[in-house]
Amino acid sequence: MKLLQPESVAAAIGELAGANGDAKIVAGGTALVLMMQQRLIAPEVLVSLGRIPDFNGIEVDASGATIGAGATLTEIARHEGIRTQYPSLAEACGRVGNVRIRNAATIGGNLAEADYASDPPAVLVALDATVRIAGPGGERTSPVADLLLGFYTTSLEEAEIITAVTLPPRDPARDRDVYLKYVSRSSEDRPCVGVAVNARFEPDGSGAVESLRIAVGAAAGTPQRLPEVDALATGQRLTPELADQIAGEYASQITPMDDLRGSAWYRSQMIRHFTRQALAMVSSPETGRTVR
Question: pTM score > 0.90 for this model?
Answer without folding.
Answer: yes
